[in-house]
Amino acid sequence: MYSEKVMDHFQNPRNVGEIENASGVGTVGNAKCGDIMRMFLDIDEDGVIREAKFKTFGCGAAVATSSMATELVKGKTIQEALQITNRAVMEALDGLPPVKVHCSLLAEEAIHAALWDYAEKNHIQIEGLEKPKADISEGEEEEY
Amino acid sequence: MIYLDNAATTRTAPEVVEAMLPYFSEQYGNPSSIYGLGAQSKKAVTAAREKIAAALGAKPEEIYFTAGGSESDNWALKTAAEAYAGKGKHIITTGIEHHAILHTCEYLEKKGYEITYLGVDKEGLVDLEELEKAIRPDTILISVMFANNEIGTIEPIGKIGEIAKARGILFHTDAVQAFGQVPVNVDEMHIDMLSASGHKLNGPKGVGFLYIRTGVKIRSFVHGGAQERSRRAGTENVPGIVGLGAAVERAVSTMEERAGKESALRDYLIGRVEKEIPYCWLNGSRIRRLPNNANFSFLYIEGESMLIMLDMKGICASSGSACTSGSLDPSHVLLAIGLKHEEAHGSLRLTLSEETTKEEIDTVVEELKAIVQRLRDMSPLYADFLKAGK
Known about the structure:
Oligomer: heterodimer
Number of helices of chain A: 6
Low-confidence stretches of chain B: none
Number of strands of chain A: 3
Number of domains of chain A: 1
Radius of gyration of chain B: 22 Å
Number of domains of chain B: 2
Mean pLDDT of chain A: 90
Number of helices of chain B: 13
Shape of chain A: globular
CATH topology of chain A: Sufe protein. Chain: A
Largest sheet of chain B: 7 strands, mixed
Strand content of chain B: 5-15%
Strand order of the largest sheet of chain B: 2-8-7-6-5-3-4
CATH architecture of chain A: Alpha-Beta Complex
Order of helices and strands of chain A: HEEEHHHHH
Strand order of the largest sheet of chain A: 1-2-3
Strand content of chain A: 15-25%
Helix content of chain A: 40-55%
Structural class of chain B: alpha/beta
Largest interface: A-B, 27 and 24 residues
CATH architecture of the largest domain in chain B: 3-Layer(aba) Sandwich
Shape of chain B: globular
């Protein structure tokens, strides 16, 4: 059901791990739906993403989209990273089954969440960046 | 390949295939035809019916062949609801039934029937007191599965049958997972209708049966010719029926031996997993359990990822995660026994067969240990858990 690219990124995920003292960390999704992505970004003084890492709880597509998203943001400026859509992540993976499209949305959202955290930490505003929707704590509040 | 998904389907036994083969080729007669060729097919169908009836303690004329478990469930519920509508429109079932029952009940709700879905305890067992309380004067049918397909819990079918009989209510059981694995007797257990399927007991796919006790005024499901006492029209699936008969005969004669072997290996599997993999547990009952079923929840990881990684190692298994159900919700069975969503997402079902070996179980446990650790190393939930513990 998955493309070879998806299987490759699932079997050999790129950039798994955490960045200590990351410039920005974003967590999206919730355990209730079965997907949580946490993205760590290291952003230099020029606003270029030097390093990206992730940890993900989820299905094969969730892991693969996280992996691909970290690959896509590396070396990009913040504004360039903001342009990375779920469609771009999907295309880079040679497509996803229809039921897994939400995983790519989550990956897009994870980038935004990490950038939002970076902006808050540095008391700046990033043009075109809205507060990310899916937050892990929101999901948990609903459940309990 | 290590096949541990025998609750999904089983390998058709060689002797079953052997029995079926002539009915695909030279024995092609229509059982309804008057000449010799047809009569031979009719004889084969009758022999299969007798074998199945004997296995259930039923009469041959109470066995109706169908295309499988789902058709049998649909037939039992829809036409019983219709036939007994004069008495009432209330049906009692459970929240852990197969979708063939649950979605049929949803359909009946739209048709004006009222359905009570009984809850289950943390082992998946129906509460008999709750059942008694749910019964109303207009209750026409109780349908409770014999054994659950996901967690393997065996329901107190005999006791439910007694209650139904005492209150004069029709009792149906979906025995798709249980028949051929554990003893079933329709008289001792007061079962009025029972659904079963061929491919779960080393028989062919696309064939099953519905047992209907004599006197139950259930109606035709498929209208047409006079096949199956005019209740299920259509030329019989002769090879399938012959295969089903052979599979049932085989399953019944080897049941004790298989159950002993499978449950010993299953307990060995459960023991190793519980001992060697942290933050996991067994779902379902330890005692009232199908001999071949093991179902675990592994915290902090998701089932589909586990399945893909197991598949890459040549191991076939299944999970109750949302990603394997085709919806956003994980298994309704695991939620019904009180699991949180994330605990249900991380479930793994392993169902053994008589062919499963100890070496295979050892391989699976070793691979599983590595896979669970690998996925946990990737999981933000596990990272949070470790941090919280520090």
